[in-house]
Design a protein that fits this description.
The chain is of the alpha+beta class. It contains 19 helices and 18 strands. It has an eight-stranded mixed barrel with strand order 3-4-5-14-12-11-6-16. A four-stranded antiparallel beta sheet has the order 7-10-8-9. Strands 1-2 form a two-stranded antiparallel sheet. It is elongated, with a radius of gyration of 31 Å.
Length: 557
């Protein structure tokens, strides 16, 4: 028994000793070397010590510096006796200087310099230039080398995969990067001496990505990145929110900075003035649109650029030769064929409460003179209360009541007050024709949301600037151009003007047999065109949510 106790004591002592050995002391801040010949040797030792410390502290060097690739870096440096990668003869190599310059200007790539230790690296460089002993400090050289390597790996990852999480419509196949990806990229950068080109080769191959990135410099030239108060909305703390709102109104010049905390009456007065100047409906009350306007500073716009560039990184390296692209916030449909825009069309999309989904599919057929079957969600939420109030609502909206036997029922013979979500043995269908909610054509594509694209009987709505007003389907202004394009290669069955003749005669036809057209519904709130970056309203608050979660405290400097 005593022998067992002695054994366990020895075992516990050994474990404690091993743990003490693993939990290394922090790497030294100073390791001054006066003999230049020993600087490289000491730098390698400090690199090893620092990596051992980082691996037992989750990559955290101190309260302000955290490295993300410590295990990979330990393997990389360990294979070469922990010699520095970016430093030779007590000086940074040309590739290191190039990378620092690229890092400083990384905002031109939609990146944030401090995501790559830029402030810390700049601090080290200032120390080298101002303090003679700093250039002899092997610990400082070791830290700089490790920060550069970690920064390169992080930038390579961000340019390849982006910073926002992949979602259900991500089409990339290489969503996980192996260690070999990072090592290969670093070796190519060092060997070729062209850091910028190696990193550019990791970016998406997309005309939309290229055009947006091309005009970031133009945007930055006139951007004002003055600090401002961000307004979280919707809010949970009304007192805290209105305190922030008052500060934001001071920053915009609508209030004097000497104004004490305001009451409701004063807030309404200022908000009315703001609404009048910015062409909002004058109510005196805060709203989502007002908060968007106040938050939409140049810093927020840059973050939206960053989000949009990352959304391109969720697409495959190449899209089909021919495809249909619907950008929901832009209210625009574009048909691409061999990298040429065949035509574009205004569209109407789902409202914030009935969003059009982001999806990938393909148009398989379309129907002329379609009949609309009203979804039960619309019946119970919108129509049933109106029918109960006045059954003539059905005739006014050109709606038929159909029973389970597919027979038309006189709506005045039904006790509508007894119908509800659990008991509704009817369908409401709209008679086909030009006044049908689907208009005269409907484009079908497989999706789990039961949405489609179609014409509309309220075509004047295409002239509105805000067009997020449908129940989720996408209404297309140039539907005839899309239909003609789909049957363009089948002139035997569909000679010119055949589709127009179907519609003129009021004939229902299901048109299929053409090559299925790939279809993308996407959410991109900015794009580069006509020499600048154009921004669209964040109609579903998708950008706002991502910015608050992933870019909230980031700075372009």
């Amino acid at each position: 028994m005593k022998q067992c106790r002695s054994f366990f004591l020895i075992l516990l002592t050994g474990i404690s000793f091993a743990q003490c050995k693993i939990k290394r002391d922090p790497p030294p801040e100073k390791d001054i070397v006066f003999n230049p010949a020993k600087l490289a040797e000491n730098t390698a030792g400090d690199i090893r010590h620092t990596l051992e410390y980082l691996q037992t502290h989750q990559g955290r060097l101190n309260d302000s510096v955290e490295l993300h690739f410590t295990a990979l870096m330990d393997s990389l440096y360990g294979a070469n006796q922990y010699k520095p990668i970016w430093i030779r003869g007590g000086k940074i190599i040309h590739e290191g200087t190039s990378f620092l310059n690229l890092m400083q200007n990384s905002r031109l790539w939609g990146l944030f310099p401090n995501d790559y230790h830029y402030n810390m690296l700049s601090f080290i460089d200032r120390a080298f230039s101002l303090d003679t002993n700093a250039a002899r400090n092997a610990a400082l050289w070791a830290r700089k080398d490790l920060l550069l390597t970690d920064a390169f790996f992080q930038m390579a990852k961000d340019l390849k995969l982006g910073r926002i999480p992949f979602d259900s419509v991500t089409l990339r196949t290489d969503t996980l990067l192996q260690d070999s990806f990072y090592i290969t990229a670093l070796n190519q950068a060092i060997q070729t001496g062209n850091i910028s080109q190696v990193l550019q080769n990791l970016e998406p191959r997309s005309r939309g990505y290229d055009s947006l990135k091309a005009y970031i410099g133009v945007f930055l030239d006139s951007a004002d990145f003055s600090p401002y108060t961000y307004l979280p909305y919707p809010y949970t703390d009304s007192v805290g929110f209105y305190h922030l709102l008052q500060k934001r109104l001071v920053e915009t010049g609508y209030l004097s900075d000497t104004v004490p905390p305001m009451d409701t009456v004063k807030f309404k007065s200022v908000l009315r003035r703001f609404q009048k100047k910015n062409e909002f409906k004058i109510t005196g009350y805060i709203s989502n649109s007002i908060v968007d306007k106040l938050n939409n500073t140049d810093l927020e716009k840059f973050k939206r650029i960053a989000v949009t560039l990352d959304r391109y990184k969720q697409l495959p390296d190449s899209l089909p030769q021919t495809y249909l692209w619907v950008n929901l916030p832009a209210y625009t449909l574009s048909l691409f064929d061999h990298d040429t825009v065949v035509f574009s069309s205004k569209v109407i999309v789902g409202g914030p409460q009935t969003r059009s989904p982001v999806l990938t599919s393909e148009i398989s057929n379309f129907i002329t003179m379609p009949q609309w079957t009203v979804p039960f969600s619309i019946i119970f939420k919108e129509m049933l209360p109106k029918i109960r109030q006045n059954v003539d609502f059905l005739a006014k909206e050109n709606l038929m009541v159909i029973n389970d036997e597919d027979s038309v029922i006189d709506p005045k013979t039904i006790n509508w007050k007894k119908l509800n979500k659990t008991h509704f043995p009817y369908q409401l269908k709209q008679r086909q024709g030009d006044d049908n909610s689907l208009g005269v054509i409907k484009f079908n594509f497989r999706n789990k949301y039961s949405v489609y694209m179609h014409d509309t009987n309220v075509r004047w709505m295409f002239s509105k600037s805000y067009r997020a007003i449908s129940h989720g389907c996408v209404r297309v202004k140039e539907w005839s151009k899309l239909a003609d394009f789909l049957v363009r290669n089948d002139s035997l069955r569909y000679p010119p003007d055949t589709l127009k003749a179907f519609i003129k005669r009021g004939e229902k036809h299901i048109v299929s047999g053409f090559h299925k057209l790939p279809l993308y519904f996407r959410y991109f709130t900015c794009e580069g065109k006509q020499g600048k970056i154009v921004f669209y309203e964040d109609i579903y608050d998708e950008d706002r949510g991502l910015i608050q979660k992933y870019f909230m405290n980031k700075s372009v400097f």
